Amino acid sequence: MSTILVTGGAGYIGSHTCIELIRAGYDPVIFDNFSNSKPAVLARLNRITKRNIPFVAGDIRVKEQLEAVFDAYSIDAVINFAGLKAVGESVQKPLEYYDNNVNGARVLLSVMKERKCFNFVFSSSATVYGEPDSVPLTENSPVKRANSPYGQTKVDIEFMAEELQKAVPDFSMILLRYFNPVGAHDSGLIGEDPRGIPNNLMPYLTQVAVGKLPHLNIFGNDYPTPDGTCIRDYIHVVDLARGHVAALEHCMNRSGVHIYNLGTGIGYSVLDMVKAFSKAIGRELPYRFAPRRPGDVVQCYADPSKARNELGWSAQKNLDEMAADSYNWQKNNPNGYDN
Ligand code: NAD
Ligand code: UDP
Question: Can you give the pLDDT at residue 241?
Fold first, then answer.
């Protein structure tokens, strides 16, 4: 079966994807520098999968470290999750984001080209659509200049992959535009473990639920939406992970540029999320309205029909499962992997 190099595989989405790769018969090799993850995830993954998943410590910006992995394993495809992802931090540290994300992807692609490994799956984001002209977003919706260095690294890496594919037509560039991943594996053994105070909605909600934070601040309740709060397309991370397997199965060794939205197609407001979460924990979750967060788009949700029609993939898990699984992970691991 095929061996898949999973760069950033110790992180939130990468760890869940390794499980689904194994379930589908692939052999993942994890490569990570733990800049935003913990080694403890590896033992948890081995426990869940009853495997000893190969792991190599390294940084995608270091060519020799990647070459050593290609020497040690016969890699058929790479899924690149390795990236920094905090929007606010990227505004403070743009050069670090360009170096880690764009330069890292450049080095990775150069090694893949050298080793004739032509299947590249990239963790892109709905952020490439910027403030949408209309929703739902299809893959043909315009890609815009992003409003943060983080978002722009996604736009730039997509362009770099497309340009490389023109120059080296053997490449299959699989660009997956994620909407808002939430939830956790139902074992409660792995999940999202942000450093410090979470920036994103779901990890913030889970920390309020376990009493680590007093209440949720809802950023803005005067948006032009039915309840005044922003709308997003939240997708269970296990569904998202399965989307990678479906994309590999369909696009591997099929040269070209393949772009898919991975979302549910349903938009939920922040207040909808609070309601679902309150239901999952069996009590009202405390929240307050706060000023708008600069740069927030009003509403963003996918038209997921291309992935459904071409990959035979669609998200299966509903909002209640997303909330329950997020809470289960946080409840069992109030301090994340530092238990
Ligand atoms: P994460 O931070 O949990 O995982 C990223 C992993 O990459 C971490 O384990 C980190 O240690 C590793 N890493 C970072 N830089 C590296 C480098 N130079 N070399 C080796 N390893 C490195 O993040 P995640 O939520 O799992 O996201 C994975 C990818 O998906 C990221 O590229 C992110 O931008 C993208 N994405 C995430 C979301 C989201 O909301 N979580 C949405 C859209 C896109
Ligand atoms: N949000 C919020 N309070 C928080 C974190 C997020 O009200 O503490 C809102 C945010 O304004 C946005 C939605 O929740 O409308 C999703 O935010 P997140 O950062 O998770 O995703 P993104 O905005 O990057 O899609």
Answer: 99
**Residue 216 alpha carbon, nearest atom of ligand 2:** 8
CA 75 to CA 123: how far, in whole Å?
A: 18
Distance 194 CA to ligand 2 centre (A): 14
Q: So which residues are the catalytic ones?
A: 150
Residue with tokens 């499980």: 19
Give the three-class secondary structure for 268. strand
Tokens 């376990």 belong to which residue? 210
73-100 pLDDT, tens digit per residue, is: 999 999 999 999 999 999 999 999 999 9
CA of residue 259 to ligand 1 center, whole Å: 19
Residues of the chain with pLDDT under 70: 339
pLDDT of residue 126: 98
Residue 174 backbone dihedrals phi, psi, to 5 degrees: -110, 105
Pocket perturbation via mutation, ligand 2, pick of 202, 296, 322 by most ligand atoms within 8 A of CB: 296
For 130-167, the three-class secondary structure string (H helix, E strand, C coil) is: CCCCCCCECCCCCCCCCCCHHHHHHHHHHHHHHHHHHH
Residues in Cβ contact with 84 at an 8 Å cutoff, skipping those fewer than 6 apart: 35, 36, 90, 96, 97, 100, 101, 150
Q: Is the CB of 183 under 6 A from ligand 1?
A: no
- Tens-place pLDDT, residues 262-294: 999 999 999 999 999 999 999 999 999 999 999
Q: What is the distance of C-alpha 140 from the center of its chain?
A: 21
Residue 112: both structure tokens together: 């893949």
- How confident is the model at residue 55, as a pLDDT? 98
8 Å CB contact between 77 and 4 = yes
Ligand 2 centre from 249 Cα, in Å?
33
